[in-house]
Amino acid sequence: MTRVVVVPSPPGLLPELAGLEDPLAEARAAALDACRWLAAEQAPVVVLGADDLALRVGRHLLSTTHTGPVDAVRLPDVPSLDHLDALLVVADGSARRGEKAPGHLDERAAAYDEGIGRALASGDAAALAALDADLGAELLAAGVPALSVMGSLFEGRSVAAETTYADDPFGVAYWVTRWTVTREVA
Amino acid sequence: MTLRLGRHRFDDDATLVMAIVNRTPDSFYDRGATWAEDRAFDRVAQVVDEGAEIVDIGGVKAAPGVEVDSVEERRRVVSFVERVRAAYPHLVISVDTWRADVGAAVCEAGADVLNDAWGGADPGLVDVAAKHDVAIVCTHTGGVTPRTRPHRIAYDDVMADVLRATLGYADRALVAGVARESVVIDPAHDFGKNTFHSLEVTRRLGEMVATGFPVLVSLSNKDFVGETLGVPLEDRLTGTLAATAVSAMAGARIYRVHEVVPTRQTLDMVASIAGRRPPARAIRGIA
Predict the structure, then answer these.
(1) Of A87, A152, A182, B284, most Cβ neighbours within 10 A?
(2) Distances (CA, A) of B284 to A10, A88, A119, B34
(3) Which domains does chain B have, with CATH numbers?
(4) Which 8-state DSSP code applies to residue B215?
């Protein structure tokens, strides 16, 4: 079995950008809960992200929840499935979800993110693997490349999925999702 | 450095707002608004609610005027200090007085700070502060008599005189037995100073901070602000806050003020610019 967790990557989760009040408290709490669940495997955790920011956010979340080894894998590198017991994917959806969103409104963002959210919540690895990367880039969905790799890694496996947080409090789509993936191809 | 005001201790980088509460019929800014004891008590409730850490209770206006002897001064402030102490155990109570006998009476009533705006005119005040283990504010007045205005006072170097006088006063306090962490120095804007002097001590305030003693500034709506901007009493808040920001960048610790909320916002803004305080809530650009 492999445990996989998806968390978002807003820089506001980093301690050096913290204010006195935490605008990301709800997303942070859900992400930390999921990281604790990941750490309960007592195995090395692999952090997968598309960029340096995603890896920093992932490492920071793990720093308070996990005392074991952490390996970071930055795209285009891809983690090996050998001995992969715990994977943290740091990825979020479109930043163009509204008039006040960082990337302003793109009418296509809602449907695109809805597809990601459905795939995460239902454990549909094939749907993640098939995400439209060009459209994701246009929609400022920074996490799509990592989500696609995650989908490719586990395509064909049995997945038990649970999404514990899904929201866009500041115009960017965030999810916190836990997958339990079987080792063998189903 | 660490600051202790009577029974209250504060972190090294804390800035404190000291709200003025006058038990006088004739002070320059409020013109007797809190002369009645209940009005003064309401003022305390208001400034506590607004976040002031300290109240500075005064029974004698600074400028020349009707004689207020020590009997009358005690009548105005001692029972009031008792009442505030009972109602607000966590509030720092400062009393603006230069008289040792008044100081002793208010310390018995629960005061934490003796704010001597007149530069040690009564040499017994430091002994009172030591005996009651309260803080003392050592101000510079240029040697003038209490309740007089400066007239043609000149300095070769006003900040040198401020340092000589306030550090001399601080030494007398230490020798008398006042705790090092309870000795505060204050350049006393407008006291024994013309507007040019007050501007210069503001500009050079870092020299006082560098002594290691916590620095108090009393800028609020003063004449040097009015003369600098050419504005009457009721239009001095903007200039006061500008001087507050400059003093905060220099490292002053205590701000004696009429307006608590604008002062606290100014101090918070400066502390965040200086990197000493996180923003209240930040998400712009980092969602």
Answers:
(1) A87
(2) 11, 26, 29, 43
(3) 3-273 (3.20.20.20)
(4) B
* Yes or no, beta carbons of B282 and A19 under 8 Å apart: yes
- Encode burial over B16-49: b for 16+ CB neighbours within 10 A, e otherwise: bbbbbbbbbbebeebeeebbeeeebbebbeebbe
Tens digit of each residue's pLDDT, chain A (186 residues) = 999 999 999 999 999 999 999 999 999 999 999 999 999 888 999 999 999 999 999 999 999 998 889 999 999 999 999 889 999 999 999 999 999 999 999 999 999 999 999 999 999 999 999 999 999 999 999 999 999 999 999 999 999 999 999 999 999 999 999 999 997 765
- For A137-152, what is each residue's pLDDT tens digit? 999 999 999 999 999 9
pLDDT in tens, B60-79: 888 888 888 999 999 999 99
B279 to chain A: nearest residue by CA? A19
ipTM for this prediction: 0.92
Task: Identify the contact set of chain B against chain A, taking CB-CB distances under 8 A.
Answer: 277-283, 285-287
Residue B1 has pLDDT above 70, yes or no: no
Q: How many CA atoms lie within 13 A of A85 on its CB side?
A: 13
State how far the Cα of B115 lies from the Cα of B137, in Å rounded to an integer: 5
Do the Cβ atoms of A12 and B282 come within 8 Å? yes
Is residue B236 annotated as a catalytic residue, yes or no?
no
B282 and A102: CB-CB below 8 Å? Answer: no
In the residue annotation, B256 being an active-site residue is answered as yes
- The pLDDT tens digits of the residues spanning B128-161 come to 999 999 999 999 998 878 888 888 899 999 999 9
B5 φψ region: left (φ > 0), alpha (ψ -120 to 50), beta (else)? beta
| Domain range summary for chain A, segments of one domain joined by + | 2-16+23-185
CB contact under 8 A, B286 and A10: yes
Q: Which amino acid is at B194?
A: N
Best CATH choice for the domain A2-16+23-185 from the list 3.40.1180.10, 3.90.1300.10, 3.40.830.10, 3.30.565.10? 3.40.830.10
Contacts of A20 in chain B (CB under 8 A): 277-281
Q: Which of A17, A20, A169 sits opposite B286 (nearest CB)?
A: A17
